[in-house]
Amino acid sequence: MPRIGLTAPLCLTLAALLSLAGPTFAKPWWMRNIASNDADFLPPDAAFRVGARMDGNLLKTRWVIADGYYIYRSKIEVRAESPDLMVYPPQLPQGVIKTDPYLGTQEIYTQQVEALIPYSRIDAGAHPIQIKVTYQGCAEAGLCYPPITKVLFPAAAASVAAGSPAPSPRWEFIAIIAGSLAFLFAGLVLRKGRKLDVPA
Amino acid sequence: MKAPGLRHFVAALAVLLGVWAGARMYLDHVVPKNAGVAVPAGVASAPDPGDGVLADAPLPRPVVPVELPDFALNDLSNKPISVSVWRGRSLVINFWATWCAPCRHEVPLLKALATEWAGRGLTVVGIAVDYKDKVQQFADQFKIDYPLLIGEQDALDVAAKFGMPSPAFPFTVFTDRRGRVVALFVGELHKPQVDFILSVVENLNRDKEQLPEARRRIAAGLEALAENQAG
Lengths: 200, 231
Description:
The structure holds two protein chains of two kinds. Chain A is α+β, with helices and mostly antiparallel strands.
């Protein structure tokens, strides 16, 4: 019987874990030795992710906010974009109070926030629902993004912001095939040479 | 594959591969790709409308110009002012907006800077990407005494000339007296950073060092400042 050490499985596990870690953070600009530190901050669509879906009589719009970033409650606006759609003022949860010596007291959201938007439509579903959301936020480290406006297509299951690419199915496809084959292969390997133990 | 030990090893590898594939799929499609995002437990399992929406590829790298680009914008009295009026002086060009809290925080520092360096060949210029009435109100309230230029799309066009086509605020450009862009700083400025960058600009102005070396020194110096702040 060949001697099997732990090195190979450990290496394999380590490699798998490393591959899961994804791309490493970009170094700050002074470590990359260029004349701009713009990469120290996230692009606005990475700092504030937004999507919407229908849920009964509500349109639910959720923002996922990166660590160290926030959105002003007072800057969130939702308007109807598609014909014959009426949206009512969004219901927003209580935010965190932020006091700024220059801007005064503001209510902000961190991490994530969901707006519940009552709506009505008089087109009997003739048009796909579209809403236009506007929001504005900042980085705690001292950077503010201009107001961002996006047209969303709330769907029952999921939605995709206008102009944003659909998620790539590449990894999902590879993962399903690789996972299935791996377990099939493992079963075949273990089964090989094993005799059926039939009682006499 | 006769040895049972080897069979078990290969099977274990295959299972590991399966686990890896499943985990990879999970992370790619359930966990937000931006590593900076933390979703509280118990909420992420609900359908997240944000999933799959994010275009999280990094923005194209801005190309910061080597030379100060030529531009003109109106001042508060609607008079067009060309940046060339400050030719021969070092410039601190601060892009800001009234709705931006960190921009407001910078104003006392910029005012002090304008006063302190006025006799040393340096001018602070504010470029407000905002509505004129709001800028006027803010300038009056905070008694801003350094030159202010104002614009909306035209100011954004100027920002684009500095390699910032979709800017966030504030950001600040430092040039030497020859009109060379020494640094572009995104985010709120603080005194130690400004003092350090301007000391390097002074060296450039006195021909004590060359631009590439100056940029490297700024990079190293700001790294040290950041470490000190973190410590």
